[in-house]
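Hey all, sorry for the wall of text incoming. These are the four entities for the joint prediction.
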Amino acid sequence: MRAVTLEDIAGIVGVSAKTVSRVVNKDPHVSPATRQRISDAIEQAGYRPNLAARSLATARSNLIGIFVPPAGSHFFSELVRSAMRACREHGYNLALEEFDGRRESAADTYRRGLRQQRCDGVILPPVAGDDMDLLDLLDQDGVRYVRISPAAQLHRSLSINADHARGTAAVAEHFWANGHRRFGLVAANPGVASGRIRRESFIGALMSRGIGLEAIEIVEFDSLVDQWGGTDWSLIDLGRLGGRRLLDTEAPPTAIFTYNDELAAGVVAEAQALGISVPRDLSVAGFDDSDAARLCSPALTTARQPIADIAAMAVAALAGEPQMPYQAISCPVSLVVRQSTATAPMSGF
Amino acid sequence: MRAVTLEDIAGIVGVSAKTVSRVVNKDPHVSPATRQRISDAIEQAGYRPNLAARSLATARSNLIGIFVPPAGSHFFSELVRSAMRACREHGYNLALEEFDGRRESAADTYRRGLRQQRCDGVILPPVAGDDMDLLDLLDQDGVRYVRISPAAQLHRSLSINADHARGTAAVAEHFWANGHRRFGLVAANPGVASGRIRRESFIGALMSRGIGLEAIEIVEFDSLVDQWGGTDWSLIDLGRLGGRRLLDTEAPPTAIFTYNDELAAGVVAEAQALGISVPRDLSVAGFDDSDAARLCSPALTTARQPIADIAAMAVAALAGEPQMPYQAISCPVSLVVRQSTATAPMSGF
DNA sequence: ACAATGAATGTCAGCGCTGACATGATCAGT
DNA sequence: ACTGATCATGTCAGCGCTGACATTCATTGT
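and here's what came out:
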């Protein structure tokens, strides 16, 4: 019971295999009548193109690779899901590559895995996209790639950047509008582009409102890791640590912004442990609108990246015939207000 | 800059392409000396087999398909992640197919999508594995499949079954031992085998302790989806809805078991919103030991399936040359006790 | 009426690999 | 030394498709 081939259809209809191929590939140079007969025969015989043969003939794999971290975060599961959908629409397949930056470089991971697959394009989310060896390798192999919110050599490739700056500023303004005047920030390592941008934007937005630096207490992510000691921390644990550092002071902030939702959830948990009510005494906002934001109680005010759009654009750029010029595409980040933020308490005075 | 081919390596070493192919495919009939020279040349020239050509020649795609639901639960992200790893180890690729049973039958989804890919094998997690049309189609196409915890025609294929019954019974007994006597259950569609089994096991275990049906309030998953209206629900949202239905009553249960952790987290959130303290006034237990279980505060008591093992076995069965005989493999499920369950409150009397 | 155009369709090699089979070399047993 | 078995290696077609190019035929302008 062999599978149906182009040749079979050609035989049925009485044309050459090439003409059938034309119909399958939507080549316009086929007469409507012939096209119809061929389409019918394809339908009737249940013909399905052999992708391997096509790949071999065209020297394209119709595969798009994507690097994903070993631990499943909201951002990545959403990204993969959306990318998969987009790939299907473009007739591509998505190949996942698990990448643990703590064990191996992105370039090595690529060498070991995805490279065998001869992807036509690769999507490089944060961290993987900042490995210059990997980019060199990709260039050398002639594999196109799109980076998502990269941190280094921004001019080097097409990149899709969530507008972390504006999203962060929106959070700052939301705090300000609610009367907050003393702030805390749990900031990520400035080596991560999004971390640096969010930090600077938060501070910048507040300063432009007249807030002085002395009213913004900053806790560094790295210092929390150091404080924790071991390697078995979770983001929530670090968030608790950060929350304690910010809240267990003379004049604690009334509003805290963190690099992501998991950290924010930790801050909330710690505040509650200290008898500080959220949002009555303290407002907390995170970033990403992840599951953690909804699981947290009260639910977190947060900033949401349009992950599905980002994935769709990345795939489109890779799948599209015309090589898109190198450029940086920006995506809006929107503020999602939930119950973890409210009007500043009066009690301060 | 053409890619390196078998022929190129053959030319360098001075043997035929076939011999190189033998080395690549670990055919034992190659002399150690030749093998070594060829291996060196492959290494040196950076040869990588063309998977498409191989597929075409062998009529095998080296692809394993898997059906995943549109909303990302822990179970499925873990399953996909583990299956992906296992596939890599066996030299296979994993093709995801998003399947929404509420929109389309699994068979139709397969026709539209995965079928084009000509997978060598398909992994059918719950729901998809219970669509007999799909199984017929797969048999007809000569595509092997493994079902995970199927609900129907259990004899029909190799299946891997987590012991949901025993895991669920363990939860019920844990509740009972803590003095609970009024129960709530957020149950999945009985069409889903694991859903039906968990429902029946929970009820059965309680009844065998002398609990009457009137003391077990059941909320159906599907009815929650209907109640929600739109399609933009998350499991947590539905859990909250379910929690409200169970708790906002005359004689609310003191212990609630849900189909999975995300739902349980929703129940906890809703309970807290209603001013009900977990676990003082209410014990809640989920299933899966997902991230949600640890993010939730208090952390959830839950039952853990060995998802990685399940995925690895499924892939091994599909990738292994010798067709494994039809059989049902059983995997243990273990109870993980955390802070969301405790002794029943006295207040009832 | 005839060349020039262009649209519809066909021919064919070859993408890189492997399966089936053929060949030649080596070796044990008589 | 000769036979037959065993092992190492080679030959070659063909998997199903598409790109480059060739051919056929109807249409148009002059």
